[in-house]
Amino acid sequence: xxxxxxxxxxxxxxxxxxxxxxxxxxxxxxxxxxxxxxxxxxxxxxxxxxxxxxxxxxxxxxxxxxxxxxxxxxxxxxxxxxxxxxxxxxxxxxxxxxxxxxxxxxxxxxxxxxxxxxxxxxxxxxxxxxxxxxxxxxxxxxxxxxxxxxxxxxxxxxxxxxxxxxxxxxxxxxxxxxxxxxxxxxxxxxxxxxxxxxxxxxxxxxxxxxxxxxxxxxxxxxxxxxxxxxxxxxxxxxxxxxxxxxxxxxxxxxxxxxxxxxxxxxxxxxxxxxxxxxxxxxxxxxxxxxxxxxxxxxxxxxxxxxxxxxxxxxxxxxxxxxxxxxxxxx
Length: 330
Description:
This protein is mainly α. It has two domains: 14-91, DNA polymerase, domain 1, CATH 1.10.150; 117-314, hpI Integrase, Chain A, CATH 1.10.443. Helices cover 49% and strands 7% of the residues. It is built from 13 helices and five strands. The chain has helices at 14-24, 29-45, 56-68, 74-91, 117-125, 129-141, 145-149, 183-202, 212-217, 252-265, 274-287, 292-299, 304-317; strands at 156-157, 162-165, 174-177, 232-238, 245-249. It has a three-stranded antiparallel β-sheet. A hairpin with a 6-residue loop joins strand 4 (232-238) and strand 5. The chain is globular and about 60 Å long. Residues 110-324 form the Tyr recombinase domain.
């Protein structure tokens, strides 16, 4: 990311300046909210001192506090650091002198929770309607929950039999597998979504959230059918940035609650979440003999070592070692 050619307005409060800079660089609203919260916590940690009065030593103290006192994960600590770097470089336009040498949080070595195929079936069986279809897509295509909910109509290709993920984690695009068994269910979902969209158009609405650059070039395209969400929300809502009343995608929290409830109903004691379906997708593909590189591409991992975690899960489940207790006659 390059430095903004327009400095943040000094007439605004600091966090408002941060918000303006992040919107200028097209950060997602979730990242914007997260970064602003980290900056706020940094300021409060140092007794409300202005960041301009602080620098590398204060950043190191804050990051060390997160690792030692709050026991955050390495990824969470890195997220806080990224927020502070953005603050100093792109909002305050201050060069941080010296290397940041905080005590680093230990990287997690936990293996992902994976369901067996039978457990996946039991959880899905205890879901219904749109929740069941979303869960099937999470497992059938290895999607993250927000990738699934943000799917646009144009990105589900029935003819080519693939699903295009636009702007996934790290703002990367990728193609993943299309579950043939969901063809008719997805057609039904699109018929429902189109009926909603046509009704919105008749009532003077029909727009959908649109990537910033495209919105400037083609302001009317956000009413086109292909740009609508596959899983639209039941009600119109006001966009927090533009203030426009439009139809957002289906709610993440609703899916999370439904899946946890279904897992309990299925009698599964493992901690099951939306992401568990993605873990299970990867592990079961490897179990079925697909190579690690193929699975890496489908998941959109930059580093194959991230995908390798699933081989560890697979190997542990295939251990041929017999417990010494099983050989004793007690």
